[in-house]
Amino acid sequence: MAYMCADSGNLMAIAQQVIQQQQQQHQQQQRHHHLPLPMPSAQAPPHAQIPGSLPYGGASAVWPHAEHFFSDVFGASAADAVFSDLAASADFDSDGWMESLIGEAPVFQDSDLERLIFTTPPPPVPPPAEAIAAAAARASLPPVASATQAACSSPSASDDSCSAPILQSLLACSRAAVTNSRVAAAELAKVRAAATDSGDPAERVAFYFSDALARRLGRGGGPASPATASDPRLASDELTLCYKTLNDACPYSKFAHLTANQAILEATGAATKIHIVDFGIVQGIQWAALLQALATRPEGKPSRVRISGVPSPYLGPHPAASLAATSVRLRDFALLLGVDFEFVPLLRLAHELDGSDFSVEPDEVVAVNFMLQLYHLLGDSDEPVRRVLRLAKSLNPAVVTLGEYEVSLNRAGFVDRFANALSYYRSVFESLDVAMARDSEERVTMERCMFGERIRRAVGPGEGADRTGRMAGSSEWQALMEWCGFEPVRLSNYAMSQADLLLWNYDSKYKYSLVELQPAFLSLAWEKRPLLTVSAWR
Question: Would you give the DSSP letter of residue 141?
């Protein structure tokens, strides 16, 4: 897939051609749904061609055990062959990259996952016995007095995402959990009987929140997912497939990477030496896309691009092998683009690093990237975040890109935090409901592996230092960034226009929107409820 661009400062054409190509693909799939997907074209790209399926494993995606995928970290494997095919066409295909991470599965096969974006079949009709049982469970939900009904907290003043009776009952249970755990447990049992991981969005989100609340009350919960049972930070084939499923169905990672890349392209301009510091790198898919954009600048290719990668916590305690594999792929891709490239892994925790570890040269233009990673440092104290931001400031970057989830789960007390999280994930689950069938096993697995554990960490038993599921809204990030000496940089009209056009790649495009939050945040929203926010600073 190829996306033409008039100049390196304008990526709007990416989204326009995304729309055209996905429409053509949709038509072809309707006529020839039994045929395999086409291989990437081997035709050399014209001037200013930039990658198609931009970013897209998602910054939170995780590498499975590197030794499973690469018998020799610096040697050849089936995944290496796939990558070589993609790079040989000088046209980065992120879907191929993602699928190469999943065991030894064929990469360009006709997969149900490839059709999820455009499939919105009606929900299955439950058998009569199940329907009767579900109706009885819903009828037994505890009534919620009008005086205690609370709307979920959210940036939207008109938010009614928690108006469903099962969610109102769940909110009442969360309030009771603070004052009378026995009453809360009794009422929660009724909610759990009505909740299901295969129902509508309200029933599904209630399934995971009731499980987390049951654990908080000490009443036990459902079994941990295979991907998180032993260590939630360790990856597996299943979890990698879950990330691909999510990124095929929704534009969240695409929006974040595309917008951040545009800000970096504009800030680095015609620089000949570019140094990107990535706090929280995983597969590096975002940078393969950026490398191709840099390789086609009208000003010419940079003489050198260097990436210093601080590993994401999701890579676990031993990230060296995973980062070595990332380095090989980016290096080989850059070689075929004719870009002098260097990848430097920094295998210490972010708070253990200092400016000298990055070896910034006087003639390098530095860009720092925090993509859905800085929230890992949130806690009762701001000092861990401030320490890393001060480190970033000491590198004198031309731009700092920040991507974060737009929900306040850090400072809020339990009841407000529960309501905020419920509103947030209800919107996320609604966006998935449009893109994926309710009887989709891939959807159930993805929601369980990716969101079930996050919900448990946010509103489950942990409190104080034991609570790790912290996220912050844009106002809190603004305060932290400005405290550390950064000032906001308004994203360009190009960046906002291409992000807007990107949304037209989805059947549910009319429910997605872009929301500008002061002073210079751009949020991707579902039905006007901001979910993921990107910003640039200097």
Answer: S
What is the per-residue DSSP string for 352-367?
Answer: G--GGGG---TTPEEE
The reported pLDDT for the residue numbered 317 is 87
Tens of pLDDT, residues 374-408: 999 999 999 999 999 999 999 999 999 999 999 99
Confidence label for 31 from pLDDT (cuts 50, 70 and 90): low
CA-closest candidate to residue 416, choices 427, 429, 428, 407? 407
Amino acid found at 255: F
The SS3 assignment for 45 reads coil
Between CA 401 and CA 257 the distance in angstroms is 10
Please report the pLDDT score of residue 223 as a whole number: 52
Q: How many beta carbons lie within 10 A of that of residue 61, not counting itself?
A: 26
Specify whether the CB–CB gap between 239 and 443 falls below 8 A: no
| pTM for the full predicted model | 0.73
pLDDT digits (tens, 9 = 90+) for 463-512: 888 888 899 999 999 999 999 999 999 999 999 999 999 999 888 888 99
Is the sign of the CA dihedral 425, 426, 430, 436 positive or negative?
A: positive
DSSP state of 492: P
- Contact 409/470 with Cβ under 8 angstroms? yes
Measure the CA dihedral 218/219/224/230, to 10°.
30
| Type of residue at 260 | A
Cα–Cα distance for residue pair 503/110, rounded to 1 Å: 24
- CA dist., res. 379 & res. 224, Å (int): 25
Whole-angstrom CA distances from 129 to 19, 123, 207 are 43, 17, 20
Strand partners, 311: 281
List the one residue out of 5, 116, 119 whose CA is nearest residue 54: 5
From the CA atom positions of the chain, what is the Rg in Å?
A: 23
Q: Is 86 in contact with 96 (CB distance < 8 Å)?
A: yes
CA torsion 516-454-345-87 (nearest 10°) is -70
Q: Which of 266, 141, 132 is nearest to 192 (CA)?
A: 141
CA distance 101 to 265: 28
Cβ atoms within 10 Å of 298's Cβ, excluding its own: 12
Amino acid of residue 183: V
Are 2 and 45 a contacting pair, CB within 8 Å? yes
Q: Rounded to whole angstroms, how far apart are CA atoms 395 and 373?
A: 19
